[in-house]
Amino acid sequence: DAGVTQSPTHLIKTRGQQVTLRCSPKSGHDTVSWYQQALGQGPQFIFQYYEEEERQRGNFPDRFSGHQYPNYSSELNVNALLLGDSALYLCASSRSGFEQYFGPGTRLTVT
Amino acid sequence: AQSVTQPDIHITVSEGASLELRCNYSYGATPYLFWYVQSPGQGLQLLLKYFSGDTLVQGIKGFEAEFKRSQSSFNLRKPSVLWSDAAEYFCAVGGYGNKLVFGAGTILRVKS
What we know:
Chain A is mainly beta. Chain A has one domain: Immunoglobulins (Immunoglobulin-like, Sandwich), CATH 2.60.40. Helices cover 0% and strands 51% of the residues of chain A. In chain A, strand 5 and strand 6 form a beta hairpin. The relative contact order of chain A is 0.33. Chain B starts with a strand and ends with a strand. Chain B has one domain (3-111): Immunoglobulin-like. Classes of the chains: A mainly beta, B mainly beta. At the A-B interface, strand 4, strand 5 and strand 10 of A face strand 6 and strand 11 of B.
């Protein structure tokens, strides 16, 4: 049984560019949450998708947007990248609100 | 406001010694509590969770945690630490179906 998978593993972008990160949830899971983990900090909640809609959102600007597909996979899009967006982006999946299982993350570096 | 405090940024223990990592939370409703472990450059692995019932919960890798509502605490313990337990540990709180709020983490170093 495959766990949560994320792609790409690493990414380097330039300020002002746009980036798309992808996540496939664990089999049987229908809810996907995204978190940003800056160096030396705990993960911060970005948003959560359920039934293809954004169900909750953390304190992140509109530059951060997402999507969930009918197969429950999800994307995180970040526009107009800033140096401060450099972080590990973690995707977590769950089954209708039960415990969240995390993927390995995507390391985004903005130069 | 929801928050989690992990008072210890770093803890160093000798292999074979006991371990306790502290976690205090603030949450307005019935909390769901979690401990995750993260190895360098990796994602988070769920160690254990508390939803309701018995306040002492057992997890993977020999870890356990005790929920104390009166102290708003959910401390993680292990009776005998292995060298392979060295990692960063995060406590998190959330409601059913809700976002998780994480603490800043505690880095565990194990001396051989």
